[in-house]
Amino acid sequence: MKALDELDFDNRFARLGDAFSTSVLPEPIDQPRLVVASDAALALLDLDPTQAQTPLFCEVFSGHKLWAEADPRAMVYSGHQFGGYTPRLGDGRGLLLGEVRNDAGEHWDLHLKGAGQTPFSRMGDGRAVLRSSIREFLASEALHALGIPSSRAACVIGSSTPVWRERKESAAMVLRLAQSHVRFGSFEYLYYTKQPEQLKELGEYVLAQHYPHCLHQPEPWLAMFREIVERNAELIAKWQAYGFCHGVMNTDNMSILGITFDFGPYAFLDDFDQNFICNHSDHEGRYSFSNQVPIAQWNLSALAQALTPFISVEALRETISLFLPLYQAHYLDLMRRRLGLTSAEDDDAELIAQLLQLMQTGGVDYHLFFRRLGDAPAADALRTLRDDFIDLKGFDAWGERLLARIARQDDGSQAQRRERMHAVNPLYVLRNYLAQNAISAAEQGDYEEVRRLHRVLSDPFNEQPGMAEYAKRPPDWGKHLEISCSS
Ligand code: AMP
Ligand code: MG
Fold first, then answer.
1. Nearest to 244 by CA among 437, 432, 388, 423
2. 30 noted as active-site residue
3. Which residues are registered as beta bridge partners of 98?
4. How far is 251 from 261, CA to CA, in rounded Å?
5. Cα of 96 to ligand 1 centre, how many Å?
6. Per the residue annotation, which of 109, 252, 271, 282 is the catalytic one?
7. Backbone angles phi and psi of 349, in degrees to 5
8. pLDDT confidence of residue 223
9. Each residue's pLDDT tens digit in the chain (487 positions)?
10. Kind and range of the H or E element at 33?
11. Which amino acid residue places its CA nearest to atom 8 of ligand 1?
12. Which of 142, 252, 257, 477 would you label with 150, given CA atoms 20 to 30 Å apart?
């Protein structure tokens, strides 16, 4: 375990040069204070968790101090935002401070979000508010704990620096960790600004650093694209299976590593609603819950366009056509497991679709249903769960179908079934209202609730003593919170 001043930097992306990023120094925020830190994320850097309690930690991640080996950079990219192309975006308020090489030989980007203005800030102030920083922190770490690939968050630092959004708020910084911050939009930028040499350089860089095994394939670029398609199919299957709605699936928010990235007004579903729109500025529902699947494929096509100088259009098309079947296979597999099924039958997709339809009509809590289904023997659990549904006849018929289905598999003992199901069905989920409670307290200077919520969500599958409050359905006020899109 290391101290902060012992980190080993190797700034590979910065060395690519000024065509890809621009040198910018962080602008510090006033009276920095630690809001929350993630020991597990710090461990990725081999950092001793007690380092978070030191004054230096606060100073470094609020922009007051910098390592001599850091090389802070604003990355340039563009992207399709809500379907329309924006020719230049770039890091308008986040900086890649540098890349840390850990003892296992992994490289982790230290990206400080809210670090002040850059040449890409356009009209923005370069800041992030406490509210959105806490939301990004909680979601990154909660998704990771659920087994859903995501960028990570090491800490949030609050401040007294005022920031104006719909109201006066305070500035914060979140330290995001990821093995790369290259986005689909990084490729699009170089393609549409007609910089073929740099586009090639970026692709070769990503291949060498992040997809080195593809270099041994006959067509390395195609192999890489194929893996990006595969990773996205698996990622989106996990979002859909666990009820996660990203909210801003613009191509500049799509990681080249196939991880959840750049959180906006995201939400986990409470009641199941396939048409749920968590971003209330998304009037057409482009990024609604169920649209995430076709949109991911659309985004892959946007990336494919930028790769046409290196891969034939035919091969790109063929590869993109793998997305949907791969997605469906992963989704089916996850949902079978969530239902406690240990084998595969042809009608399983229909069984799942019927359940979701019943949940949709009944406004049934998406998470607790699966958890409770594993709590007791299936027939007993179904009798209890029945009360939550509106179409009782429909639910009874579905229940009969499930029981018959279970009878055809080797189900093991109830203890085994419960253990198997609880391992994939979280008890604690980052519901919007839980985040909101923690944020309200933090805005008053009380960080205990953020820290407690983070702790609970770090171990979502295991019941934790005294934490029953976090495993409930949301109160009515908490169900339809309008999460501000400003951040
Ligand atoms: P986001 O919605 O956070 O993914 O941001 C979209 C684009 O707007 C990115 O280029 C951001 O860097 C930029 N941006 C968002 N908020 C700000 C801000 N407060 N100041 C400067 N740039 C911003
Ligand atoms: Mg973004």
1. 432
2. no
3. 110
4. 11
5. 14
6. 252
7. -60, -40
8. 99
9. 999 999 999 999 999 999 999 999 999 999 999 999 999 999 999 999 999 999 999 999 999 999 999 999 999 999 999 999 999 999 999 999 999 999 999 999 999 999 999 999 999 999 999 999 999 999 999 999 999 999 999 999 999 999 999 999 999 999 999 999 999 999 999 999 999 999 999 999 999 999 999 999 999 999 999 999 999 999 999 999 999 999 999 999 999 999 999 998 999 999 999 999 999 999 999 999 999 999 999 999 999 999 999 999 999 999 999 999 999 999 999 999 999 999 999 999 999 999 999 999 999 999 999 999 999 999 999 999 999 999 999 999 999 999 999 999 999 999 999 999 999 999 999 999 999 999 999 999 999 999 999 999 999 999 999 999 999 999 999 988 888 889 9
10. strand 33-37
11. 92
12. 477
Domain boundary assignment for the chain:
4-184, 339-422
Which of left, alpha, beta for 342 (phi over 0: left; psi -120 to 50: alpha)? alpha
Strands 244-245 and 94-101: unpaired
End-to-end, the C-alpha distance of the chain in Å comes to 34
Q: Best mutation site among 21, 121, 483 for ligand 1, i.e. most ligand atoms within 8 A of its Cβ? A: 121
Residues whose CB is less than 8 angstroms from the CB of residue 311 and which lie 6 or more positions away in sequence, other chains included: 219, 221, 222, 225, 304
C-alpha to C-alpha distance for 305 and 282, rounded to whole angstroms: 25
Q: Which atom of ligand 1 is nearest to the CA of 89?
A: 10
Judge whether 41 and 154 are in contact, CB under 8 Å.
yes
Q: Which of 196, 202, 284 is nearest to 211 (CA)?
A: 202
Residue with tokens 């890349």: 99
123 neighbors 113 (Cβ within 8 angstroms)? no
Amino acid, res. 382: L
Tell me the CA–centroid distance for residue 177 and ligand 1, in Å.
Answer: 18
* Ligand 1 centroid – CA 92 distance (Å): 5
Q: Which atom of ligand 1 is nearest to the CA of 125?
A: 20
**By alpha-carbon position, which residue is closest to atom 12 of ligand 1?**
92
**pTM for the full model?**
0.98
Pocket around ligand 1: residues whose beta carbon is below 6 Å from it? Answer: 89-93, 120-121, 124-127, 248, 253, 262, 264, 487
Cα 351 to ligand 1 centre (Å): 42
From CA 92, how far away is CA 70, in angstroms rounded?
19
pLDDT value of position 481: 87
Best residue among 86, 112, 120 to mutate for probing ligand 1, ranked by most atoms within 8 Å of CB: 120
Question: How big is the chain by its Cα radius of gyration, in Å?
Answer: 23
Task: Give the chain's largest Cα–Cα span.
Answer: 68
Nearest atom (ligand 1) to Cα of 77? 10
Distance CA 278, CA 248 (A): 9
